[in-house]
Amino acid sequence: xxxxxxxxxxxxxxxxxxxxxxxxxxxxxxxxxxxxxxxxxxxxxxxxxxxxxxxxxxxxxxxxxxxxxxxxxxxxxxxxxxxxxxxxxxxxxxxxxxxxxxxxxxxxxxxxxxxxxxxxxxxxxxxxxxxxxxxxxxxxxxxxxxxxxxxxxxxxxxxxxxxxxxxxxxxxxxxxxxxxxxxxxxxxxxxxxxxxxxxxxxxxxxxxxxxxxxxxxxxxxxxxxxxxxxxxxxxxxxxxxxxxxxxxxxxxxxxxxxxxxxxxxxxxxxxxxxxxxxxxxxxxxxxxxxxxxxxxxxxxxxxxxxxxxxxxxxxxxxxxxxxxxxx
Length: 327
What we know:
Blueprint: E1 2-13, E2 16-27, E3 31-36, H1 42-49, E4 57-62, H2 70-76, E5 77-80, H3 92-102, H4 107-120, H5 136-148, E6 154-158, H6 166-182, E7 186-190, H7 194-200, E8 203-208, E9 211-217, H8 218-225, E10 229-235, H9 238-249, E11 254-260, E12 263-268, H10 273-283, E13 286-293, H11 296-304, E14 314-315
Parallel strand pairs: 3-7, 3-8, 5-6, 6-7
Antiparallel strand pairs: 1-2, 1-4, 8-9, 10-12, 10-13, 11-12, 13-14
């Protein structure tokens, strides 16, 4: 069952065509990652999903209703902007209780509801501290907590980890992963980091020039976009790495190979990775190795070209290893 349906939507601002026949559907309980370069139309899409704008053509349905129906938006759809501010003199618990009252959570359920959200977003131990002393990451998680009050059907997170340090990003990711695994809320997660979308989302949509450039399950997108894996090897010495690099350049199954010190990287077909590792391991001592499948950036390049802002590949769990023998 789809909780979001966007059908052939167009939206212009004067002479600027922000969306041009964009269509997408999101099933209940999915975590959809949205990526678009600046000016791609992502912000306009979010304004349509939250009822802040109406399309010039086409239709939008969120949680079974037109999002411009204010009551439906308030009750079923929540939007967390990149920056959300709170009165610094209030505590996290007070802010969540205020939102619970505003969203008509029954009085007898309010304390339990707030306590559950505090645990969900990892702020139970800081619930009675003034938010003026919260870190940036804690404030983001408090913002997520306010969006969860009243159990929405759709949660729209607009670059929620932008500007956070690694610890803040990790903590926020853990909350999103918990929500995706333990609830049926539909999460729309936008990010400029394709690797972040790949880690957190089951589905992805890449928007370019107001249209969907590509969309589908994350695993299918990245596997379909490229037919090679990257094998990274660390050998016992630079001399060994230099000799192995020369040999791999003549290997018919290797498309490219590069070396830095005692480390080398080679690209080959997935079916050839094991044989390549075995051949190198028989001739040289391998300190560690890793096999990486293509990431979503491959799908981005195939769909629209250009450079993404995140170019990390993803290790293949079955073959990544730190030992000296192929897994």
